[in-house]
Amino acid sequence: MAGGKLTPRQKMINLMYLVFIAMLALNMSKEVLSAFGILNNKIVESNSIADIRNDSSFQQLAQKAQDQPLQFGAKKEKVQKIRALCKEYTTYIENLKTEFTKEYPKDQDGNLPFEAMDKGDKVDEKWFEGDKPSKSGQEFLDKMKDFVAQVRQIGGSAIAESEMKKIEKRFAAEPVKSKSAGTTLNWLDYNFKGFPLIATVTKLSQLQADIKTTESDIIAGMFQTDLVAAASLTAYQPIVVPDKTAFFQGEAVTGKIILGKFDPNLVAKSVIVNGSSVKAEAGQAKFSFGAGNVGEHEINGSFNFDENGKVVSLPIKGNYVVVPKPKSANISADKMNVVYRGLDNPMTISFAGISDDKVKATATGLRPAGAPGKYNLNPGSGTEVTVSVSATLPDKSTVSDKKVFRIKNIPAPAGAIGGVVGIQKGAKSRLEVSTVSADLQDFVYDLKYEVTRFSFKVPGQAAIIVNGNKVNAQCKAALARAAKGDQISIFDIKTKIIGASNIVPKDAAPVIYEIQ
């Protein structure tokens, strides 16, 4: 077609032929476009699984950092920052995918119209200006470069150099020699220019996959050394677990020794406790020996294993306390050594060294208060109440004790004017507006009184009975005839205890008000 002189008609035919070839090259087959779409879906699905896996791995590492901050704390902080960096970069790419595909609605299954996404105009217009990257294209390249640089900066020496090389290679954007173009193209041109949109979306999804792989590799690489060490037998810590923290003199000290990292398939070669060999079981060894004298005693020995052809001995260290058997109960009134009639008197009842579920207390008006060892005692008639206590010891024997408490009535409150008890001085006008109240001072319970009735007496005049807690018009009239120096008496003060309608309190002590 290129040789010799060509007629205008032949030139036109040749031009049409070239246009036809170009159209064939531009119109990729539907099968290839669908293949890209299916591949993109699989990558997106794989990315979701990678997110779940990375989240789970990080949660495990976060728990290790909480349990052992000195060993894992700094590394956990690095991983947390890198995860935030990965999330930010992944979101940036996802926004690009959304921007490029916003004109292509997804079907009911969430799939893009793969076969219609055969043009890459949107990408070319955004990322290229002639043969060079546009401002947006350069931003895309800079994001990739900055991501690698920040990973290196955050990770530091915690990321092995060999692993960092892999990350740099994974996100390298070096020029590429293109056989089809017959020249060397920049990385962005080679990978995205002129491609169908579905191919670009798939490549961006793969870039997100590379980010998630990087995150996963960093987590695994940072903690690989620690996890290998944790799997060694030297990481197991024998723990002495007595059946209880203190034992009575003459009892057998019982309990078990377990490994801090319990493995039901791990059985020691031998276990020595206080110089004696005990039976090794799956991940533990139970022991029993005499308690000895009253006081603190040590438990020591070793767990012995075969590892890599040699014996590894893990030391056992613990202690226990021997206390004498109790002979009397500990019974105390939380407010004082008497109990008051009509009130719930809180009490703590226990036997030293015996759990509360093995202790039983009885008395007239005694009932549990909802917490171990706590009771309320509301005594009835009489002047005394006896609290009896019994307890069951570990050897099934019982001990008992009792204590007598005095029963007292609630003392009478003191009358008050304007909240002040006793003798007061003031103007008539003040008394006219003051409230008559009652207060039980220096009492172990915080009781609140309400005055319901009182008598009002002005010298030389008849007493006035008032219902309520303020002077009435009749009192004011009598008060108007009082002279300076007269002492107004307020007496027969009747009250009720707020919140305790079943208690009839004594009359409050009278109060005197001298006119000034």
UniProtKB/TrEMBL annotation:
Q: Which residues form the Gliding motility-associated protein GldM second immunoglobulin-like domain?
A: 328-408
Q: Where is the Gliding motility-associated protein GldM first immunoglobulin-like domain?
A: 229-324
Q: Which organism is it from?
A: Flavobacterium sedimenticola
> What is the designated name of this protein?
Gliding motility protein GldM
Q: Report which superkingdom the organism of origin falls in.
A: Bacteria
Domain named Gliding motility-associated protein GldM C-terminal: residues: 411-516
Q: Which residues form the Gliding motility-associated protein GldM N-terminal domain?
A: 31-223
Matching entries from InterPro entries are given as: GldM_Ig-like-1, GldM_Ig-like-2, Motility-assoc_prot_GldM, Motility-assoc_prot_GldM_C, Motility-assoc_prot_GldM_N
